[in-house]
Amino acid sequence: MQRVKVEVMLVSLSPLCCCHGSASHFKLRRFSSPSGLKVSPWRGLDAWRGSPLNENRKWGDHGPEPQSQFQLRGSPFTLGQASSLAELGSIVLSTSDPLAKAQLSHMAYSMWRRHNLPLGISKPPSRPARPPIPQLVSPKEIPAPKDSGLPLNAYMLHNLAHVELNAIDLAWDTVVRFSSYSEILGEEFFGDFAHVADDESRHFSWCAQRLAELGFKYGDMPAHNLLWRECEKSSDNVAARLAVIPLVQEARGLDAGPRLVKKLVGFGDNRTSKIVARIADEEVAHVAVGVYWFASVCQKMNCAPDSTFKDLIKEYNVELKGPFNYSARDEAGIPRDWYDDASSTSNHDKKDKDDNKKQLSEVYERLASIIAMEKENSSLKKPPE
Prior knowledge:
Elements: H1 6-12, E1 31-32, E2 38-39, H2 45-49, E3 58-60, E4 63-65, H3 85-93, H4 98-115, E5 136-137, H5 152-177, H6 182-185, H7 187-213, E6 223-224, H8 226-233, H9 238-267, H10 270-300, H11 305-315, H12 326-332, H13 336-339, H14 341-381
Parallel strand pairs: 5-6
Antiparallel strand pairs: 1-2, 3-4
Helix pairs in contact: 3-4, 3-5, 4-7, 5-7, 5-9, 7-10, 8-9, 9-10, 10-12
């Protein structure tokens, strides 16, 4: 398949209508591909887009609550240097301290929302700034729980914190990297991914807080760099970025969330299990955003979303592996036959069976009609007694 690059979009997509600072311009709609396939957005997408700023960055005794003290730490940058959303995103990406990155992410999104800042244009760093620890290793070198020096609940929470920290950078990189194409993609695109970054920063804050309560911190064990490597692959291709990150990497979070919650409950850590369950719940919106914009890009390029997704996954050598959380993926709006060959085969088999039944039914109707006609002709030809 010819790569669906941003440069191609420049001549094949028309600018989107946009309106800054409000969610009222978002209208959910079904996207129809040239093959007739319809992609339905998550029904909660409008409510998520129109929700007020979420200040519940602390996990209290009864769940999320506002943070009593907000002290910025560890960043040589000030957000006052920035005058646009893209510039704010670049500052977040250039911040190495994890807690400072999370705090700046929330401040950046808040400033854009409250002060009606323009999107602007900026250039992201070649890779996000990272702290000296954790040591980044290949996925195969990540120690098993028994060899990590952490109890199972802290081990699982550390892994989740690493995913959430990367997710902050993945979302902001999407905002900054493609900011020069705002007339094509529409400002709504960038508002959505800045909102995703804000959510992810809150998730990381909850994980970091709980790790501290358990007597540990982010960086106490090695982590992998797989997520950022996947992001780098799609640095020149917005359709691939949407396919690889929200529709594959973040969708894996929907699959893993319930299993992680079950393990934490079995370990006896109900507090951490509730944090993980809340994070998994909120990830549905992030996958749904990816589905919405991937379908939108495909529609504008007159491409079928299903075949385009499969072609990109193959081209970028991205593995789709279960077990899948079908209910969460269905809620987020990912059609099953995009990612599950068994479902696709099943649907084709069902269609073939239905077609066969229809053909047999037509044959039976014709035979019955012929038999009826033969009987009628026979009675007409029969001589009177």
